[in-house]
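If you are new to this repository, start here. Below is one unmodified record pulled from the training split, so you can see the exact layout before writing a loader.
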Amino acid sequence: MNPLQQLETCGQSPWLDNLKRSFVAQGGLQEMMTRDGIKGVTSNPSIFEKAIGQSDEYNGAIREFLAQGDRDAGAIYEHLAIADIRAAADVLASVYSETHGRDGYVSLECSPLLADDTEATVAEAQRLWKTVDRPNLMVKVPATFAGLPAIKRLIASGVNINITLLFAVDVYEQVAQAYIEGLEEFAKNGGDVSRVASVASFFVSRIDTEVDKRLEPGDPLRGKAAIANAKLAYERYESLFAETRWQALAQAGARTQRLLWASTGVKNPEYRDTIYVEELIGPDTVNTLPPAAMDAFREHGAVRPNAIREDVEGARIVMSELERRGVSLDEITRALVVDGVKLFADAFEKLHAALERQRLAHVG
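And here is the target side for that same chain:
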């Protein structure tokens, strides 16, 4: 049993943070499910931009689609992305069935251009949910000011949601409350809460990148903020889903909204290339790993059950020390949400520009 497979024994589900048509079609995803215990897939605009916009792999599919009539770049993107999402969802259907809907999901992001528009986000998420038409789809909604009310409404309508771009513990708490409130409304309207799933994608490595910029070389707090922040989020998760209010939903079959560790690839070569997996192992969590991080952990990862619960008091001390030195996590996490939306929006627009060039080449 390799280290990736061992994560399941610790209550954690490894998901793959990558998606490409050939990878699914040629059996790569199925192989990782069998060999590594991979239980889900996440995508985002940057991943699709690399897969579609930076290769010729999709040229035939684009040509075939345009042969049916001219389409704009947005329609071409959606045609390609939805086909890939459906294919991955169908491969993961066995995991979805075996885990009774706890795992086996593939995520598709709402347009990042809608991140500051609640109504448009709700409409887009519901449309994608209906169009993909797979029970193991999760629609990604960002944890922006406009995204938070959209989460509650979408959960209340029975849509599976992956909340993305989460950096701050207090915002995570708002996300979890939105999930609980959405489930309560869904149940009140006669919905089966056991069929609704959600994860809260808590980003990790980007926090260390930004905090480290504000610390002197050699400072012992370098590389400590992201894991400390995640430990405090997990502590809050356990507290929220132990409350009496949640128990009523749990008795009706509802499942907790797991924390999903995102951005777990190590960006600083001075740090262990497996640190954001090893230090965040814990029950009822997901870690979505980019391919390089997955390879590293498979090869030489160390598995410590309940690592996420270790030295939580030390995590609080790290946060207090950062504040004492004038490093504001509040300012950093707010900026990271804005930057994250911009990065995805830029990738989205870059992909659309590439597809428009291909459209013109095919239709003249």
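Two things worth knowing about this chain: The chain is about 55% helix and 10% strand. Residues 329-363 form the longest helix (35 residues).
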